[in-house]
Amino acid sequence: MKAPSPVGQRCVNHPERESSARCLSCGRFYCRECVTEHDGRIICAACLAKAGEGGGDRRRGLHALGTPAALIAALVLAYAAFYTAGRALIALPSAFHEGAAAASDTSTYGMHEDTPRP
Ligand SMILES: [Zn+2]
Ligand SMILES: [Zn+2]
């Protein structure tokens, strides 16, 4: 069974061959050898190289996205720990102030363990 070539186009790289696929990225026609499937789309080798670069950027973007998420999770955990420690110190406002200053110097965990007193 012959695959009907879209508009009787020829492969950009092989003028003697009829195109059997069209690059969905640049819209040019190519023979079966010159195209490849990428993310379920038929694209040419040139666009695949570009997509490869773009994919790298996208992967970096996803990696960058993961960092703020982890940061937010850490902040939420730190806030929860600080809030728990803060509730213990809320009866002593001046001590809470000193505790907050110390917390920035040492760790919240250490402050919670030592339970600093005025
Ligand atoms: Zn292309
Ligand atoms: Zn070709």
Q: Quick recap of the structure?
A:
It is built from 3 helices and 4 strands. The protein is mainly alpha-helical and 118 residues long. The longest helix has 45 residues.
Q: How would you characterize the overall build of this protein?
A:
The chain is mostly helical. It has one domain (21-114). The chain is 55% helix and 10% strand. The chain contains 3 helices and 4 strands. The protein has helices at 45-89, 93-105, 108-114; strands spanning 21-22, 29-30, 35-38, 41-44. The chain has a two-stranded antiparallel sheet with strand order 1-2. A two-stranded antiparallel ribbon has the order 3-4. Strand 3 and strand 4 form a beta hairpin. Helix 1 runs parallel beside helix 3. The longest helix has 45 residues, at 45-89. The mean pLDDT is 75. The structure holds zinc ion (2 copies). Residues 11, 13-14, 17, 30-31, 33-34 line the site of one zinc ion. One zinc ion is lined by residues 23, 25-26, 28, 43-44, 46-47.
* Small ligands present: zinc ion
The overall strand count is 4
Helix/sheet category: mainly alpha
Mean pLDDT: 75
User: How far apart are the first and last residues' alpha carbons, in Å?
Assistant: 89 Å
Helix content: 55-70%
Oligomer: single chain
Strand order of the largest sheet: 1-2
Question: What coarse outline follows from CA principal-axis ratios?
Answer: rod-shaped
Give the ordered list of helices and strands. Answer: EEEEHHH
Note poorly predicted spans. Answer: none
The number of helices is: 3
Largest sheet: 2 strands, antiparallel
Over all CA atoms, what is the radius of gyration?
31 Å
Number of domains: 1
What is the strand content?
Answer: 5-15%
